[in-house]
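Every protein is a chain of amino acids, and every chain bends into a shape of its own. Below is the pair of lines this work produces for a single protein:
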Amino acid sequence: MKDFLKYSLITALLVGTASCNLDEEIVGDYTADFDPSNPLFLDAQNNINKPTPNDGLAGAFNGLFAGTATNGGFFQVQELSSDEAVVPQKGGDWFDGGVYIAIHKHEFTPQTVSINDAWVNAYNGIFQCNDLLEDGQSDANEAQLRMLRAYYYWRLLDLFGRVPIATSTTGGAAQATRAQVFDFIEDELLAAIPDLPAARAEYGRVNKAGAYALLSRLYLNAAVYRGTPMYQEAIDAADMVINSGLYNVIGNPYKDVFSPRNIDNPEHIFIVPYDQATGTGMSFAQMTLHYPSQLTYRLASQPWNGWSTTEEFYNSYEDGDERKENNFIVGPQFDLQGNPILDLAFDKGDPDGAPINYTPFINQFFPNASRQAGARLGKFSFKIGQQNDMDNDYPLLRYGEVLLNKAEAVARLNGNNFSHATTLALVNEIRTRADVAPFGSMTEGDMLAERGRELFIEALRRTDLIRFGAWGNAWWEKQAHSHAYKVVFPIPLQQIQAAAPTAFPLTQNPGY
């Protein structure tokens, strides 16, 4: 195998699994009389699938399966460090060395396992891109790989700031400044655009709109990434997507964007094509549902009873918002016959007793959170009878985000006027789809909240909180802090140690 940045290829600890899967007795019966509130009533045998192109690029694109929609890596550090996701410790269950507590409370360190996983996942994907590029590619394939590599580098830019820019599988690369990484990503995307397709991308690949969508995200965060606002550039990039006419929000129900049959959804720009057989790694049902909820969805195995949202975030949605109904699983839970499902090892102090009742209120973060507390993550809805690996495609870039990017950039370019007519029109297009009343005026806080409601669990909340200056705010079980250095994560200790004897040692981000 070709020599690569050795410190980037340290084997990550296994992600996407939990040490908390207790095989407990569960009570309930199976019939088809009960339709759960949030999932499609779609039998798991109906595996709607579509092959990705036979273009020789699968090795690079398949790297996205790791850490994108699972309990580890990029998804974990982006979501659990924000106010929208939490994994309470339930006695000895879901402690796992305190990693979930540390990330949520912003007490992460260079030794935090999932931070290293996020680093390794990104550089593994970059290595695959570089390897294929060195083998020689058509102009079209080279553009695909440069766009994908730029996306992997966006993750590293957002998480760590100062990282090596490797464009070869041989030798090493010096640690670049955050501004240099920003410039590299911008240059790569602009270079790729001429040879990317103008039409909708083939399944699992990218097109010009994908590059422009990523540019709109990059430019919107330019003040954070390189200290220079680039709001007009963010608007221009978003307009290239909007004016393409390839995507739409109105007439495309929100729930359909994330369902198990969301292949080629009209809002998808760039996706990870998860599939229970050919593209494994998406495990939201296992991560979030209580053990007896296996009976509600006739799951192939017991879930792990981990991930929830915070009560405050759940309550940020108004009643009647279709996103609230779609994004969360709350209330009493039943088997397919309509009988209550029971937790035979329920907390004696739980007023609901044995019947499962997902309450938005969580009694405590640790050490003894209630086993059934917390609204559960239902945005990517579950199939009846599904396997541990889900079928839902996961959007890395989608049209709703592009509309919100432009809306915010317009407001900021116009003196932070979030009631600007264009901003209101774009946000209200999103709200109309969600069946909630349009805004007549908006504040900056309204904009942040609306992005949260729309983009829940799409691994953007941390990025948004930082850009809005809300990263150090207090939220449930996390105290306020003013540690500006925490806008980036520490460079993983494993990577620093591995790089120390090389020609390109790594230095730690200041403050850690």
